Batch of 3 targets.
Target 1
Amino acid sequence: MKLTKRCLTAASLGLALGCASLSASAGTAFVHLFEWKWNDIATECEVNLGPKGFDAVQISPPHEHTAGPYWWTRYQPVSFTNLTSRSGTEAELQSMINRCHAAGVKIYADVVMNNWASYQDHGNIASGGDSWSPRNYPDLSSQDFHNDCTISNYGDANNVWDCGLYGMPDLHTGRSNSQDYVANYLKKLTAMGVDGFRIDAAKHIRPSELDTVMAKANRPWSFLEVIGASGEAVQPTQYTYIAPVTEFGYGTAVAGNFNGQIKNLKTLGTSWGLLPSDKAIVFIDNHDRERGHGGGGNLTYKEGVKYNLANIYMLAFPYGYPKVMSGYKFTDTDAGPPAGNTNCDNAQWVCQHRWANIANMVGFRNFTVGAWSVNNWWDNGNNQIAFGRGDKGFVVINNESGALQQTLQTGLPAGDYCNILAGAAECSGPMITVAANGMATFNVAGNAAAAIHGGAKGTGCTTNCPLAKVFPQLNVRGTFNGWSNKAMTLVANNTWETTITLTGGSSQRLKLDVYGDWSQNYGDTNSDGILERTGADIYNAGSGDYKLTVNDQTLAYSLVKVGQCTTCYTSVLPTLSFRGTANGWSTSAMSLVANNTWEVTVSFDGQSNQRFKFDVKGDWSQNYGDNNADFVLEQTGADIFTNVIGSYKVRVNDQSMTYSLTAQ
Ligand code: ARE
Ligand code: CA
């Protein structure tokens, strides 16, 4: 079955390759597990990549590299014969290859041959224990490198090919010694089972010389990193006779239109100046682009829902060989991988390949690979599109905030299909029925998508279907229940709900816990109403009955006081509390009584130094006082002194930021 898939794939991409060799073919969709350790990749192949149908995984460079905490130290090789790197040892590499193959997943190794180590700030002992200095490595010495110079002019091909990228020693790829050294490395990895190679910085190697290296290595399946930029002397088309090339224009074009109008993406391909489909490796972002190395302008995981939709488009649209980027969260663009596990159990990893929509679209691409055309295109003239892939699959992408409801021609045979983008598993959501004439009705929420294909047909639930859910169950735990588990109820598709009784106080807080054992828990790190896995505790100083609602697809949640008319009144602040001597500086939640008008009744005793402030979250992080006693609040302003006695209505207008005290 595996063999059939690969042959079919190679043929459909128009590659003139036989079916005899499993490794010598492009596939359907692969993932770059950036900076993952070999042992963790092996497990990921078994539990996720294989079952979800990923065709291959691109691994970080396996060769020995210079020391230092940065991710890019791995792009500074020291030896091709010592294979101990930040990701593990040679034995672990071999074990990973074997385990991934057993799971039906190929391995593509990143190969850095053009530029060699120069960064010595963390010493001259490399990842495998070898010592080195620039132009002087365990197996190579000065004569194996071009003369010392730094690339300074992309308008001059000789400069781009023969000088050092960022000043790094530039391998003399015209010398047969150097060529043999690289070819032997490729042959060694091939013998270990590696199925293909990403040739890093191929743009900086003369095409004829790279071709010779590949010939000496018996032409393993490879793709070449050549960044196309107009006006430069070296262009991707000079390399496509050797192997497919990374098409950097693709991610830029997709990002530009997801930020513009995706109806334009109907024709994406050679007419846009992109390489022919069978020569193009495509990606929404890669490890450089997501952090602005080698240019930016792409969508990244930081764009969240738009990035999700762009990946869905890439995996649905018949152009190129798509690569899903999967890396870790960062703010510092040099930062190396997070400490601890290099896998999705560690919340520091983004794990894009596990996003339910992306993972399920891999199944779509596998099933539709034989129908290499766009059919039954529909758009609304703006940011809602839909298209089919022959009679194999159909996708609807809504890049607008409003819902989409359309009855569309799918081109698919009649039947009940799973909407593979409605839940975690392909068939965990409601079914979509294609009528005998090929028409089907789609209801797609804002910034969401729907997809159906013949490989995910259900047993036919169209009425009284089980509700869609990503989590099997969900609990809320907090100070209000002594951190025990309170089960939430699935009340609508992807919507969990329960009512909890809060007692107030600035240390009152809660979290969400899927299994009730903290193994998969959620908080809200930046207080934006969207949960993060293992995020920070959610503070709320309110008291009384609150309705907690969680959407397990978007991870949006809300905590709303029961009976409080929150939808009737608008406000700038999400909550507001009164804190002062009158309540011992505890939090008295204020209620919205009109648009922008918060109110609470306070009993003042007129004590000397009687004073108060207003606090948004109950933790003083955003509080308001009054610096000049003009009844207009300033953030972090001075305490408000008052000598009133008795019961007063305290009001705040959160638009004008005025406040008032009115005797009862
Ligand atoms: C690091 C430090 C540098 C230091 C250097 C030498 O950051 O300050 O001078 O080491 O000690 C990665 C990082 C680099 C890092 C390098 C080596 O991105 O920051 O340098 O590793 O550790 C060009 C190339 C293209 C390359 C991009 C980044 O053409 O091949 O630059 N991409 C690959 C990898 C990178 C890797 C390397 C190559 C090096 O994907 O991760 O670098 O092995 C225009 C041109 C492009 C050009 C681009 C940026 O767009 O058209 O061709 O890309 O500008 O210069
Ligand atoms: Ca070079």
Target 2
Amino acid sequence: MSTLGVNLSHFLLKNDVEPALISAIESISNACKIIASKVRVAGLADILGKAGKTNVQGEEVQKLDELANDILVEYLSESKVFYGLASEELDEPIFPEKGKEGEFVVSFDPLDGSSNIDVNVSIGTIFSIHRRVNGTVEDFLQEGYKQVAAGYVIYGPSTMLILSVGNGVVGFTLDPDTGMFLLSHPEIKMPEKGKIYSINEANAEKWDREGLREFIQTLKQEGYTLRYIGSMVADVHRTLIKGGIFAYPSDKKNKNGKLRLLYEAAPMAFLIEQAGGLATNGNENLLKVKPENIHQRTPVYLGSQKEIKQLLELLR
Ligand code: AHM
Ligand code: MG
């Protein structure tokens, strides 16, 4: 079912998503609605924060990425469906008291691109859900293709939830009047080929992967243009909708690049592939990489079929 305007829970029910997974996704979407409301007034929070570091409600003013993390931890710990939580903001995973019988583990980046908060540029929350297998930290270290759901919420001019439960990609827009995520993009399919490349080209001198500079040069000759926001959620969102390529490669200083496998690369790779694109670390499909630790970094190349195939031919 893909009736425009239907709300998230109804959509999941109608698509026969298992009840525990519906609860899991609902708890994430509820936490993200709260984060969206904080992001919307981020500038004000700073002004209010100056008076003794408490806001008008008498609450302590926190940095927004810490706040986003606290909100997610609280909501997801209460939801009973998550046996474990791993966050980019926390050194170790959390195993909530109420999640002892939980069927899933979730990994998330609470507020990706948070260096962009000060300049009012789109940022987001990224999440990845795996099934509980052993009931240990090992459960977070499953390959990306084993995700049962992945998605992100982008806090932009509108707040959107982009989601895959393994049968395509759908998008919901937060309706400020009803406070509900309503289906706005029933089937997100990437074009076979795009016109945009998205990479921090200031690092070009440092890139250590042979063939990458040549690849970018080829795209320029083919008439591609560059768009780079520096906020992965925003850059991937554009790539998902318009096609092209987003990359964060390794370089001489950062041998594994910058982005994290669990919280950023794997969920985005899942969405990109579910929308018909390809995702690689330059050597293998990102979804086949078995993580060795929860905070592991990886080079990332995500995009349309044409660009990723072309890249893989040139990389040495
Ligand atoms: P963060 O998780 O600390 O916010 O860092 C990740 C962000 C991504 O959103 C973005 O793709 C990347 O960092 C940009 O890095 P750079 O400024 O080096 O181009
Ligand atoms: Mg991040």
Target 3
Amino acid sequence: MHDFRQEFPFFNNHPECIYLDSAATTHKPQCVIDAITHAQEISNANVHRSSYHLAATVTEQYELVRTRLAQLIHAPASQNIFWTKGATEALNLIAYGLGELCLAQHPLWQGNEIIVLTSEHHANILPWQQLVQRINQIRLKTTQDKSIKKLRVTTVSPDMQGNYQYDDVYDAITDDTALIAVAHVSNALGCIHPIDLISRKAHQHKALCIVDGTQALAHISVDVQTLGCDAYVGSSHKMFGPTGVGFGYGTYELLNALPPYQVGGEMIEYVSFSASRFQSFPYKFEAGTPNIHGVLGFGAAIDFIETHRDEIQTTENQLFNYLLMQLSQITQVRILGQDNTHKISLCSMVLTHQHKPLSHYDVLRWLDNANIALRVGHHCAMPLMQHLQLDGTLRVSLSAYNTMSDIDRFIATLKDAIQHLIVENHADSIHADSIDGVIVSEHDVKSVLLPLARQFGVLQGYENIFRQIMLSSKALPQLSADEQIESYHVAGCEVDVWVKYVSQSDSFEAFANSKIIRGLLAILLEKANALSHQQRAQFDFAQYLTELGITHHLSQSRVNGLSRVIAQLSA
Ligand code: PMP
């Protein structure tokens, strides 16, 4: 196997880190870092503006990347590629422009319905939802023609195990479909959707097929002409390149018809106060100075992918098969979308024990403590989680720089975490008096009967603090299940948290789906409930957690989440 890891300086700097979150962003090989440094140190000039030698050379290099990307995805010409700051911006640009075409009754827009898959990333849902709202509002104000139908977004969902029946997708496309927006690869399930068949069906009904290729390009070969889609977008940072650069591909017809999304320098042909003219595509979509160094770095990433394509795929397949084999031996693991035969090296799983969910978030804390980086939660696919009736999944996403030993360590630590949580949950489910010493020691039981805060002063080390927070969760004044409703929900936390102020007793009750968060809430509420309203308003709860030695064991996002809870306690 090619040793990809040695090409990625990140791992020299973090030899202990097991990185299983490449779907969030990939690491960068030395060649990409060198290309960006070279651009900044040596070939720094603005593009397209000046004809002096340096500027012309940089413009040439910059445009060459467009050509190389066009070759990578088999676009007919470099003009079919426009630069953006990411896939999100490219999708917004296309959706905005298509809304304008709809209003103008352009022949490319036929129908009233936009289809998206339930598993789409929010970046491929929200622009379409906004389009529909914007156009419906404009039409409501400006047209008296009652025969014009409202636009709508409709969805096609997988089954409850996360498997798609693609006939459902093909059958959903009708003459009333204006477009279908679909990921090439789902970031939440890892499945590769049959874009060629979907776009063929779309075109039979004069609908467009817009593809979010963000999760595909680092893993599989892409030929946009064979796929037959009308547009395809991606982000450099998921393809070993830098952040802040992305692209959109579109057919000649689509890009020619779409209006600019932003206006300004670079994209004009002529400007005067009486009339201005814009350039043709792709430049009409690229107002302002672009991310030149980012594009040049992306160029090196494209070369890296081209050079190592086969090895990347072989290595990822071997790693992924090994991962699946190991996971299949853990009875508490259920993998979503397991029937999908075409997948990239990404796996989303839920953990259950005796039909009860184990909190992914608590598992994550355990893994994080062992330097294993992966993602839990909704993965920017909330509608999918709602459909599957899950509060999130644990997602492992591999790249060729991972190793078998990464997987071994992950599996061993995951087993530990599961075991640990099963023991904790068992201890929870029986009355404290009857807890036998094998499950949880006498000292632990006594400790929760004492004021929670007192337990922390003497504790050293993450494991002890972690354990004590978990134990504290048992003392939380719990908000009942039927009161875990929208009005008590605290937005912005990593997991679902509800906090209710009970005025009769001047105290708070709360609940969270994670045991660690319940523990932290218990510690905060113990203090808050002992203070008067006025004292609470002046009390520094964040400082309190710091004094207990807890804060420095919390990630920034958890601190941010807790600060929202604290704001409620102090209100
Ligand atoms: N689509 C998918 C499938 C993604 O996974 C992501 C990133 N998680 C995006 C779109 C958005 O990409 P970016 O944030 O780079 O614009």
